[in-house]
Each structure stands twice: as structure tokens, then as C-alpha cells.
Design a protein that fits this description.
The structure holds two protein chains of two kinds.
Chain A lengths: L10 H13 L23 H7 L3 E7 L2 E6 L5 H14 L8 E4 L4 H15 L5 E7 L4 E6 L5 H10 L7 E5 L17 E3 L2 E4 L2 E4 L2 E5 L2 E6 L14 E2 L12 E5 L14 E3 L4 E5 L5 E8 L12 E8 L7 E6 L3 E15 L5 E10 L10 E7 L2 E11 L6 E5 H8 L6
Chain B lengths: L6 H16 L5 E3 L9 E8 L1 E3 L4 E9 L5 E6 L6 E5 L5 E4 L6 E2 L2 E6 L4 E8 L12 E9 L6 E2 L3 E6 L2
Parallel strand pairs in B: 3-13
Antiparallel strand pairs in B: 1-2, 2-4, 4-10, 5-9, 6-7, 6-11, 11-12, 11-13
């Protein structure tokens, strides 16, 4: 730990104590600690304060709930009880019940040694963490299984840390938890996995329509493509979070005639709108960002922000983020294509083709162009792709709003 | 709305019966070993030989051969599958999904132990360009897109004999 961390080491304990104080607001203050602010009568003093108040102070912790203090000087019980009596009472202990243990090292020395070791140990490799172990009155260095203990001990000696003050222990590496496009993510942004019935799709973009907080996905990502049946959505899966995020509220029916090829039914967009359930947090204009385009990564590393809407022309480079193939990027190859949907009677009118990766589950994804760093121009909703997964088809945003009405998307 | 669901599957039983009756379809070929190393057995079933110009019934069978249920993540509201027919020189002459734009929705389908998913279609012996193929020995392979790697059958041989 770093030296400046010393003052906040006991914050979790303090929070617990504060919680106890909140349920017992009439608990008497400890009049024996006039040097401390009133709040500290029930909140653990920070270690810097304890180090000043208790000569030879070597650390403070809870031993199976009992306040326990290391001191190097046996004659300091009185100082311990004055400094921590209020905290002990707040936890249900009399000051006399505070355990006082003989410590070999002062907190100040340990803190200084931890700082030195931390500055250099990580460069040795295999070091997982460096800690001032309050419960052991020692400097603790944890290394990965198989890493050299001797190397750490030599380093500590060189830095002036007494051998008996150091504990080296093996532990598993600490893994950083990273949310993926298939995880539960709040606030909800575009590109995340959504679930309804027995199907998975991607969330296209958040929108406000007539004052209703909403998201847009593909029309075929509803119980019935075309027509509003109130499809219930979950994110990422009902089994992960059984609280529904929203309900389908607008999915225009497919039509015949009016430019639709004979014996076919048509729409200008494969898009539907769902209203967010009350209390579901979402980020208007937010699109999940992964580490880069066309690398297959699904870990979320940031957020794109929609700042405009527009149309693409042949040759434009456009992007999508979806739950199956992540962030893919490619060139627009065809625009305003009347597109038959494989093995159906549906023709989607005036769609855009892009030469970029796609896979099952990407339906409903956002399509966007990069404008400046992480700001983007919203272009449409992905719904289709070829069998090789190398070309996707999307409905332009102008078509989407033609059918769903005006949408506030950023 | 008017989306057709499982059209090929729906048409197939009657057509298969008719073909079996009138064309004298011989014992189907079944792949000997599935390519899936786990409990899923995926095979393509096609006639060993057919006469030139006659429709070729093709069935893909995905079976859960394990003792536990298997959750499959498959493409399409109706399960989308591909069939690839290659000529004697190995070049693909017909793909069921050639040029198709498929909806990229992911269907979660659970197969109980021993349960089989059957997917059926008919190849008319025409190339994707529309011409009739000549007699010869062809291979037929089934492909099932998923949200990871596609499932693929081992190809089987199909002989097209002159009239």
C-alpha cells in the first residue's frame, strides 16, 4: 500500500461503526476522548490518529469482532482505551474488553517499509500484492505460486526491512473483472445482449419517443415480426436478472403494395421500439465500446457517444457493436437495396450493405460512423448477414424514424 | 406478419415419400463419424445415387448423444442451415444459403438426451447460377451456424447417374 493510504485504511471499519451508530443514535459519547471530534466516539479513528494517540501503536483490527490493538509498549492500555473506547462501545464492547497485543514493530515503521517494498517489488515479477498486515504486525508480500520467495526477502533486506518483519506468502493472481457485451450492464447502453422468449439479440440504441424512455432493436427480435405484442425483454438473460428491462411498444406491421414486390410483404426498416421499465437505468446516446474493431473482443472498455444521426454512402467506413462479434468495421458496398429475407416472404426496402463481420445474435445492433475519437454518428439498425458472416445488412436510421416516428437518440 | 417458418421442413415429408416411391431412392448414405468431439452427433443424410435432373432430398440430423441436455445457440427464428454440394473437382456448385441475407437472431434450443433436430431440404441438381449439373460424383455437407464456430457434418458422396 502507499503511504497516503494509511489514513483511509480503516474506512470500511468506520463505515460499519457508522452504520451501528445510525441504529443507536442515542448511544452516549465517550467523554474520555475530548481530543477527537464527536463523530469519532463511534467511528474508528484513522490509523494516523491512533499512531499519535497511542505510543508504540502497531496496528488495529477486529479479531472475530473484538477490537484488537498491537502496541510495543505494555503500559499503553489506558491510551488504547481512551482512543478506541467509543468505537468499542459502538460495537458492543466495553473499553476494558479491547484486546491489547504485544507488537514488535510500530505502525509507522511498518508503513514506511511497505512503501519501500511496494515501490520496487512489483518490478521483480510474480508479486501479487504488498500489504501492511494489521492483523499480524508485519509487512506481507504475496507472490504467485512458484515465484521466488528468496528474491523478495533479499530485496526487503536491501531496503532496510528486518527479516522478521517480513512475511512472504503465495496466492493466486488477482484477476480484473471486465464486463462483456453478454453480461449484465447498468446503465444500459447499445450493443449489449438482450433476451426474449428463446432468443438473443443486441440492443440497437436508446431513445426517447414522446417522452417515453425506450430502446430500439430489430423487429424480428420481437415475439412476432411486425405488429406490437408487448414482447418482454431481459438483459442479459432472464436467468441472470429476472427483472424485465422493458416491453415492446411499437412494431409496425408489414405491408403489401406501395412499392412492395408482388407476393411479398415489406417494410423500410427491421426495427421495433421497446419502452424501458420504470427504474431501469440507461445511458442515452451510449454505445458499448470494446478494445478495437474486427478483433473479436467482447470485453467492454469504454463507451461511444452518439452526437448526431446521418446516412452513409457507398465507400463510407461504418461500425457496429453487437453481442456475438463485438465491434466490427467495414465499408458500405451498396445503398438503398431492396433485400429479400432468406426463406421468408419479407422484403426490406432500401437497405444498406456493409462488408464487415457479423454473426448470429448481432441482430438489432447499432450501426454508426466514427466522427471524433469516441463520438459517433448513428446510422441505423443491423438485422441481416450472409452465410459467411462477412457482410451485414442494416436499416438506415432515416427509415427507422420513418416507421417508428421521431426519436431522440442523444 | 407473413414470415414463413420451416417451410422446407414442412414440405419435406410428403415430398420424401413421393421420391421414395417414384424414384426408387436407394438406402441413404449416413456419415460415419461426426466432426463434433462432444456429445452432439451431426450428420447429413442423402441418397447414394440419383438420376440426372431428379430432386435430391437432403436431411441434416443433430442428435444429443450425451446423458445431459444440450443448449444450442443457433441462427434464425426458424433454424437456419446451409447445405454445400461440391462437384467432382471439389468446387462448390450449390450452397443453400448462397447470396441469402439471413436474420442474425440467435435461437436458444435445448436438446434432451437422445433428442434429434432434423432439418430438411431438396437440391434440384441446379447450380447457384441456375444450370443443371452433369453426371458425376458429388459431395454433400451440412452446416449449422451458431454464435461460435459453425457445426459441420462430414461430407457424404452422392452419385448422379445419366438418365
Amino acid at each position: 500500500m502507499s503511504r497516503h493510504a494509511l489514513a483511509v485504511r480503516l474506512l470500511p471499519i468506520a463505515a460499519v461503526a457508522l452504520g451501528a451508530a445510525c441504529t443507536d443514535a442515542t448511544a452516549p459519547q465517550d467523554s474520555a476522548v475530548p481530543a477527537f471530534p464527536a463523530l469519532q466516539a463511534v467511528q474508528a479513528p484513522d490509523v494516523a490518529t491512533l499512531a499519535r494517540a497511542i505510543p508504540g501503536f502497531g496496528g488495529f483490527f477486529l479479531d472475530r469482532g473484538v477490537p484488537t490493538v498491537y502496541v510495543s509498549d505494555d503500559g499503553q492500555r489506558g491510551a488504547v482505551e481512551r482512543a478506541l473506547g467509543g468505537f468499542a462501545r459502538a460495537r458492543g464492547f466495553a473499553p476494558s474488553q479491547i484486546h491489547v497485543l504485544r507488537g514488535r514493530f510500530t505502525y509507522g515503521d511498518l508503513d514506511r517499509w511497505v512503501g519501500r517494498v511496494s515501490d520496487e517489488a512489483f518490478a521483480e515479477g510474480g508479486v501479487v500484492f504488498v500489504d501492511l498486515d494489521e492483523a499480524a504486525n508485519r509487512v506481507l508480500v504475496a507472490v504467485e505460486p512458484g515465484a521466488s520467495h528468496a528474491k523478495v526477502r533479499r530485496l526487503a533486506l536491501r531496503l532496510g526491512v528486518p527479516a522478521e518483519a517480513l512475511v512472504v506468502r503465495e496466492t493466486d493472481p488477482v484477476q480484473q473483472y471486465v464486463a462483456t457485451l453478454r453480461d449484465r450492464v447498468r446503465p444500459i447502453v447499445a450493443g449489449l445482449q438482450i433476451h426474449f422468449g428463446n432468443f438473443l439479440c443486441s440492443l440497437g440504441f436508446n431513445a426517447v419517443s414522446g417522452g417515453q424512455n425506450s430502446f430500439v432493436t430489430a423487429s424480428h427480435c420481437t415475439n412476432v415480426q411486425g405488429g406490437t405484442e408487448g414482447t418482454i425483454y431481459y438483459q442479459p438473460l432472464q436467468s441472470v436478472d429476472p427483472v424485465s428491462i422493458g416491453r415492446e411498444v411499437d412494431d409496425p406491421v408489414y405491408f403489401r403494395g406501395r412499392g412492395c414486390p408482388k407476393k411479398r410483404v415489406c417494410r423500410f426498416s427491421d426495427a421495433a421500439r421497446a419502452a424501458y421499465a420504470t427504474g431501469i437505468p440507461f445511458a442515452l446516446g451510449g454505445i458499448a465500446q470494446t478494445s478495437g474493431p474486427n478483433n473479436g473482443a467482447l470485453d467492454i472498455t469504454g463507451t461511444f457517444q452518439i452526437t448526431s444521426e446521418g446516412d452513409a454512402v457507398v465507400g463510407d467506413v461504418v461500425n457496429k457493436v453487437g453481442r456475438t462479434t463485438g465491434w466490427t468495421q467495414g465499408t458500405v458496398t451498396n445503398t438503398c437495396v431492396n433485400t429479400g429475407v432468406s426463406h421468408t416472404r419479407i422484403v426490406q426496402l432500401c437497405q444498406t450493405f456493409v462488408s464487415a463481420g457479423v454473426g448470429p445474435g448481432d441482430s438489432g445492433s447499432d450501426i454508426f460512423g466514427l466522427t471524433d475519437g469516441s463520438t459517433v454518428r448513428l446510422l441505423g439498425i443491423l438485422w441481416g448477414g450472409n452465410s459467411a458472416g462477412t457482410q451485414f445488412v442494416y436499416s438506415p436510421i432515416s427509415n427507422v424514424e420513418r416507421e417508428l416516428g421521431p426519436l431522440t437518440t442523444f | 406478419m407473413g414470415e414463413s417458418r420451416g417451410g422446407a421442413r414442412g414440405r419435406w415429408p410428403a415430398l420424401a415419400a413421393a421420391l421414395g416411391c417414384c424414384l426408387g431412392v436407394p438406402t441413404p448414405t449416413v456419415t460415419a463419424a461426426p466432426l463434433r468431439p462432444n456429445s452432439l452427433r451431426f450428420v447429413v443424410v442423402a441418397p447414394r445415387s440419383v438420376r440426372l435432373g431428379k430432386p435430391v432430398p437432403i436431411t441434416l440430423r443433430l442428435t444429443n448423444a450425451g446423458k445431459r441436455k444440450a443448449d444450442l445457440f443457433l441462427l434464425g427464428r426458424s433454424v437456419t442451415f446451409d447445405i454445400i454440394v461440391a462437384g467432382p473437382d471439389g468446387r462448390v456448385v450449390w450452397r443453400r444459403l448462397e447470396g441469402a441475407s439471413s436474420q442474425q437472431i440467435l435461437q436458444v434450443k435445448t436438446l434432451a438426451p437422445g433428442q434429434t433436430l432434423e432439418l430438411k431440404d431438396v437440391w434440384t441438381q441446379r447450380t447457384n447460377a441456375g444450370g443443371l449439373v452433369p453426371p458425376g460424383v458429388y459431395t454433400v455437407q451440412g452446416v449449422l451456424p451458431t454464435d461460435a464456430a459453425s457445426l459441420q457434418t462430414t461430407p457424404v458422396r452422392l452419385r448422379i447417374t445419366p438418365d
